[in-house]
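Priority: low. Protein: Peptidyl-prolyl cis-trans isomerase. Input follows.
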Amino acid sequence: MVTSDQRRRQLAREKYARQQQRREESRRKAKRRNTVIAAALAVVLAAGGAVYASVALTGDDSPKDNAAGSDGSASGPTPSQSQSSGAEPKMSVDAKATYAMALKTNEGDITITMDAAKTPRTVNSFHHLAGKKYFDGTKCHRLTTQGIFVLQCGDPKGDGTGGPGYTIPDENLDALGKADAQGSVTYPAGTVAMANTGQPGSGGSQFFLVYKDTKLPPSYTPFGKIDAAGLKVVQDVAAAGVTGGATDGAPKKAVTIEKATVAKK
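Result:
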């Protein structure tokens, strides 16, 4: 015959067993949840590595993204930017004109032709920032040499997280033609496009210079074309590779924009 004391001990053991079972189940659920989160992060990081930027090509304005980086369908890393005023500058450029952005760098001069008729708000933003000497003394912080082929610049922090404190809308996204089955278009060598965070309308001040034809989703505003001499400068930087022998990171041949100006042609 089971005594009341024995019964109490049995009930206590059963209660303890139930508690242990619940704890174990909670641990299993947490482990599964963490595994899912880790897998999702891996996908995000892989995407970012592919173009903040989202070229993603990503940063605060994101080839991290987000040169092609935030960009799921790119086969390599992505292009990817906070500083200055909080509102997009008022329109001050001639929306029917062509402008030239001249970048004087320690590695050579790069001139970028910009068509305000196609990308008026992008050109207006660069005109405004250059006038404020925003780019002067900044480094081109990211070079990618596999999957996508871009040099990313325009971050005042020099680490892919800086931007002007405002964003500008995407423009001219259909300029490079219809996307292929993988959702990508070709950004030809010499193209200059906006980096972003991987989200629409998230461009800031970061931009990327394409030095070799690159497949990316049509998510990055193509707003300029590098002159032949400037393209040679970027290609020479790319030929020197990435610091530490990686395929995505700071260029081994450091590039500093000593002065940037934008003028009507």
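Confidence is low (pLDDT under 50) at residues 32-56, 61-76. Residues 1-265 form a domain with the Cyclophilin fold (CATH 2.40.100.10).
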